[in-house]
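Protocol step 6 of 9: fold each sequence in the batch and record its structure tokens directly after the sequence line. For illustration, a two-sequence batch is reproduced in full.

Sequence one:
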Amino acid sequence: MQKILILLAFILFTHYNFYGQNSDLEQHRFIDDIRFGGGINIGVGSSYSTFSISPSAIYDFSDEFSAGLGLTYVYVKNKSTVNSTTNIYGGSLLAFYKPISTLQFSTEYEQLKINQAYAFLNEDASLWQPALYIGAEYVTGNFAMGLRYDVLFDKTTNVIYSSALSPVFRFYF
């Protein structure tokens, strides 16, 4: 009789463990909260051409808070009297706060390496340029657009942007 009770207890616990393992499969996974996106840009003119790509990935900690990483690559060919080629690459840290479904506040720290080659010089110019953006965006679906302001902007040393204020367009899926 004691052996039968032990066998029944073993079967009940084994069944319970199998049920517990099946329910674990239905739990929320880390990858479910990751969104991918970014931007791409192509500009062509009579003496100027630009190509840029900026992929990024963010993790949604909640409906309000997200954070992630981004990469940037920009190629610029200037065929005017300057005749230069510029390669810009780097990365960024992103953070978002969405208090309501249509409004998003953002911060972004970006560090870009700028390499410029001039046809008339034997030397190339190379430097790092940091930026710390604070922005606000209107959000509709997977798309956000707004403005951001670079609090580290210095007009005398910034070689990429002419203003601290710039538009921002984000798309995540």
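Sequence two, same batch, same settings:
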Amino acid sequence: MTGLASLPVLQLVTPVSACGSYFANVYDGTSYGGTYYQICQGSSYSDLSSIGWDNRISSIDQTLQTGHGFIYYTGPTYTDSSFKACGTQSYPSLGSTFNNAISSILSTTSCPDRDSGDWRRDDRLPG
């Protein structure tokens, strides 16, 4: 009979995102409920219908590097109403203008540094 020292050691590993450490999760339910889709930092989608996510997003939780963000548009090909979310942001609800109305997402590196005094959360969204 062998001792416990000879048994293999199992390591619990947190699953790694396909995007690495920087991404946005968009959810079809408010408060990060329901199904989600992960968007990697630097990725853009001119027409969310191509991945089955047109007019489905109800909440957003993103973790991006300083200076990076996404612009969320209600029209395809980056048109119509929009809001910019920079860096790490959480939006448990999107308000009547953007809830289930986002049709395209544009990656941007034109986000000011949060410490510069120029950064602010988009005031068109609740929270």
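Proceed to step 7 once all outputs are recorded. Observation for sequence two: The mean pLDDT is 84.
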